[in-house]
Write a structure and sequence with these properties.
Helices cover 62% and strands 11% of the residues. By secondary structure, the protein is of the alpha/beta class. It folds into two domains: 67 residues, Orthogonal Bundle (Helix Hairpins), CATH 1.10.287; 219 residues, Pyruvate Kinase, Chain: A, domain 1 (3-Layer(aba) Sandwich). Helix 2 links the parallel strand 1 and strand 2. Helix 1 runs antiparallel to helix 6, helix 2 crosses helix 3 and helix 4 packs across helix 6.
């Protein structure tokens, strides 16, 4: 067998090994997409329940007291990824964040969740603050959300920020997502007006009996918690959907490459066999004449 055939065989073995790695990553991404999408679906129902609870409280009691004027500074929470092989996941989100914040004249401070996105936003003119560690599973999301809420509350209490906005990728289908944003704080008149516009699902409005203020504060805490939780879960679902799509494309490319290399290998091997047979027949004919 010629040297070129040996080299080609080595390339085929390497491509086959890479194909196995891609298949494993594809299976892992598909499994992760399923669990995060299930979490998002469950959160949507819970989020709706919290909204109805807040609607009941605001319908029965007075609005929240207006907050004191603070120095206009926007805290921006951006959910990205820690790992690669996600296509344009971080780039599209970074461009969306830069374009959205360019319309705001206030001072802005960026909190990144994900090392890949942090390095991407570091190339812009935005001011980056401390980053948060992206959770690796569903069970780790509540811990991250608790840390983020505590950080935002401390900065608001010290008058360092006046508004909080969340940016993340939101899944649209199994492999399609788009950047989105949500204004989390403050819970001002605009937020309360939108909340009061909710239509109650029946013609009988509920009432809060006793401890109305405590109930309202509990619902507000749940609203902030579930908003951050849902943003994180949607971001992780989009990340794994993007990785799944990338692995599917990579698998298709490797399959096509393997098919071409195998065809080339078989052709070279057949040519080598033909040459050996020709030499054998030529030698036999020469001996026969002698």
């Amino acid at each position: 067998m010629s040297e070129s055939s040996v080299t080609l065989k080595r390339k085929i073995n390497s491509a086959a090994d890479l194909h196995g790695v891609v298949r494993a990553m594809k299976a892992m991404a598909a499994a992760n997409v399923g669990q995060y999408e299930n979490a998002v679906e469950a959160l949507n129902d819970y989020y709706r329940t919290v909204q109805l609870g807040l609607f009941t409280c605001f319908h029965q009691y007075q609005a929240l007291p207006s907050e004191q004027q603070r120095k206009p500074c926007i805290a921006v929470l951006v959910f990205g990824s820690d790992q690669g092989l996600v296509g344009q996941f971080n780039d599209q989100l970074a461009d969306f964040v830069v374009a959205a914040l360019a319309k705001r004249a206030e001072e802005k401070v960026i909190f990144c969740i994900g090392e890949r996105l942090q390095s991407r936003l570091a190339e812009t003119s935005l001011r980056l603050a401390s980053s948060f560690t992206l959770p690796k599973s569903i069970n780790a999301i509540p811990t991250l959300v608790g840390i983020m809420l505590l950080e935002m509350e401390n900065r608001r209490a010290q008058g360092q920020i006046s508004e909080v906005i969340i940016f993340h990728n939101q899944p649209m289908s199994r492999s399609i997502y788009q950047p989105s944003s949500q204004r989390l704080l403050p819970l001002d008149d605009i937020w309360q007006k939108d909340l009061k516009s909710i239509i109650w699902p029946s013609d009988k409005l509920p009432e809060v009996i006793n401890a109305g203020e405590e109930t309202l504060l509990a619902f507000i805490h749940e609203y902030l918690f579930v908003s951050l939780y849902r943003a994180c879960a949607e971001s992780l679902a989009s990340e794994n959907a993007s990785r799944l799509a990338t692995m599917l494309r990579a698998e298709k490319t490797i399959d096509e490459l393997l098919e071409k290399m195998n065809s080339r290998f078989h052709l070279l091997r057949q040519n080598s066999i033909d040459e050996e047979l020709f030499d054998l027949i030529a030698g036999f004919e020469l001996l026969k004449k002698e």
